[in-house]
Amino acid sequence: MGSFRKWAWGLGIASATAVTAFSVASWQANAAPDPGKPGVTADQPKVSDPQAGPEPAAGVGADALTGDEVSRARTIALTAELKAGATDVTGKGGPEYLTAQIAEDGDRRADVYFYDYRNDRLVKQVVDLKSGKVAASYAAAGMQMPASEQELSTAFDLLLADPAAAEFKSAYRKATGKDFAGKGTVKVTAHVFKARHADAGAAQCGKHRCLQLVVESSDNTFIDINQFIVDLSGRKIARLS
Amino acid sequence: MTYRMRAAFVTALITAAGLGVSAAPASAKAPAAPCAPESTVHETLPNGTVWDLCWRMDERAGLILENVSVAYATNPEAVQVLQSIRLAQLNVPYDSGDTEYNDLTDYGFGGGDLETLKSEDCKGGSARTGSDGSAEPRRRKVLCVSAERSGLAYRLHSYDFPEGAEEPTETIYSKQGHDLVLRAISKVGWYEYVTEYRLQDDGAISARLGATGDLSPGNYYNADQGWPIGKGARDFSAMHYHSAFWRVDFNLAGKGKEIVEQYDTRTDGQGEMAAKLTTSHQTIAKEGSFTKANQRWWRLASPSSKNADRHRRSYELVTEGGDKYEGHPETQPDVTFTNGHACEMFATGNADPECPRRQTILDFTSNNEDLKDPIMWVRVGFHHVPRDEDQSPMPLHWQGFDLLPRDFTAQNPLTPDGRKDVNGQPR
User: Fold this and answer.
1) A-chain residues within 8 Å CB-CB of B217?
2) Which residues 135-174 on chain A approach chain B with CB closer than 8 angstroms?
3) Which fold has domain A149-239?
């Protein structure tokens, strides 16, 4: 449970909150509450407080996919054909893995999503975890899901390598009073950006995969760079006008 | 959110009392487990109501409840209410027109954006560990389960006249209610959102989204589009919208195929003392979107499951819709009914390569299918005009709706023994 935000590079602002131990008294049983005496606040009714055991290898019904199931589903979903025909956000062969979620039918099928940067399309592979086979494949252009950790990292690299970095650093100084000391000192998340009617400067976004970054410094100050859109498909920075 | 109290209040009702009719409740029978023990919530509230459900986290939708059933001390057999309930979008456009977010489908409420709960987040409750639903799932304390007081559940001052007695026997029936509360927190940029479901001991379900965290640090405009929150009239924090959608799939008594009915009441002439009102209903037979009007409401009724009075079990949607964002056609209907399709999960921004043309609820209804087993999409909007008090952190502001049992049980499921003979017109 230590560092769940892998994209909080470096000094791990988020991991500090994640590891905070949750110390609880043992609330047991479902006893009715003490009705309380006048002027005394009655106790909150109790709920059971089961302690989690180790993660099972596989879930039941529509339980979330376990770590093992996600690993298996990813391997099965990444067929030779898909691997050969697609590229990831860094330009390497094979599609960008986005996420794997349990399909709703309760049959332990995983919907595994990839983004294929070569063809700018979202790919969904339905994996039957029982048979170990891809049950169905779908792909469509102009469709976007939230960003992967690698995409967030790549997007921030692209921004830092662009002339726009000077504006980012200036905004950072203005917001925090300090000089930007490198990628490891900030937490980056993003909204996927899709151009709407009047979005000049980033009209390709939607067809292209684009991110609007949310950058938070280690002292929890947000750096406003909403004017910049990182076009991951075009590997460039667009500016909203 | 408050729901309209339709039940007539009974004050000082005089009855010939039936004393101590029923035995103590048997323990509720849980249905066969549709999920692992760690993703099961099974809790008994102080009044004897038992809620049983499965939970999980989805990377985009966040907290999802499934297989929700309820049993009561008075009706100890567990009966299913919901197949699932989940958030289906949170659309956040700023009044300037410069910025718009879709926080579920473009960012996500689950995965790494779920906060690990700290003790104050779940004080008095149980912080449950499970997968956070991320691309590489991590097990963390992400769901808070707690029981909370909900105030007075009912009250009745009753005068009974036992046979032969000269004086009436007075009984005051008064009971405090409780909710089983499920809660998760998602951090989306500077905002933090609380997904909350309150499962009440009277069978009602309240779905709410709370917003806290901080106002946008970058969106400051003029007085027409913002509110001055710093010193003087300089920093006009941007007004903006939160249009939230939920996807609700009923499965009443496990039989599904609910019938959607719309009820409307109109004024219809004058009686001897007051106006006459007439209530009529129509069955909504095809997929479509609908909007509130005065004295209009909807219910989903089981075609086959009945309560002990032989009335069809149903749940009623109690919603006010809130502020209606006029910038998009899909943020205007208050409720939409569709058939359930596996690739229709988000009310807008429904990005599924399996069905690329079905992107919003309006696409889902465009082919006007006959409703066979309805999904209910509920929208509740909130136009947020910032105020000085929003800094900092912002006090939680809430938006949501209620699902109210209607004829799910033959009487108030919390009916005390002394009132169990009250059912229908006193004769």
Assistant:
1) 175, 221-222, 224
2) 136, 138-140, 142-146, 148-149
3) Nuclear Transport Factor 2; Chain: A, (3.10.450)
Q: Is the peptide bond before B416 cis (omega within 30 degrees of 0)?
A: no
Residues on chain A touching B106 (C-beta within 8 angstroms): 144, 146, 191-194
* Interchain CB distance below 8 Å, A46 and B147: yes
* CA–CA min distance B66, chain A (Å): 8
Note which residues in 183-202 of chain A have CB less than 8 A from chain B: 189-194, 196, 198
Assign residue A182 a region (left: φ > 0; alpha: ψ between -120 and 50; beta: otherwise). left
Residue A61 is nearest to which of B35, B46, B116, comparing CB atoms? B35
Contacts of A190 in chain B (CB under 8 A): 107
Task: Write down the H helix ranges in B254-403.
Answer: 361-364
The sign of the torsion formed by the CA atoms of A185, A191, A194, A197 equals: negative
For every residue of B222-245, DSSP letters joined together read -TTTEEE-SSSS--EEEPEEEEEE
Please report which confidence band the pLDDT of residue A198 belongs to, taking 50, 70 and 90 as the band edges.
low
- CA B146 from chain centre, in angstroms, equals 17
Contact between residue B299 and residue B313 where contact means Cβ atoms under 8 Å apart? no
CB A195 within 8 A of CB A211: no
**Section A221-235 average pLDDT:** 94
Q: Does any CB of chain B come closer than 8 Å to the CB of residue A124?
A: yes
ipTM for the assembly: 0.89
Return the structure tokens found at A109.
């099928």
Q: Where are the domains of chain A?
A: 1-21+54-142, 149-239
**Could you give the domains of chain B?**
37-149+179-256+285-339+368-417 (2.70.98.20)
Residue B237 contacts residue B227 (beta carbons within 8 Å): yes
Under CATH, which number does the domain A1-21+54-142 receive? 3.10.450
Whether A173 has a pLDDT exceeding 50, the answer reads yes
How far from B356 is each of B31, B350, B352, CA to CA, in Å?
Answer: 37, 8, 6
Tell me if B342 and A104 make a contact (CB, 8 A cut-off): yes
Q: What is the pLDDT of residue A26?
A: 33
Distance to chain A for B343, nearest Cα, Å: 10
Contacts of B119 in chain A (CB under 8 A): 22-24
pLDDT band at B162 (very low <50, low <70, confident <90, very high): confident
Q: Average pLDDT of A17-32? A: 35
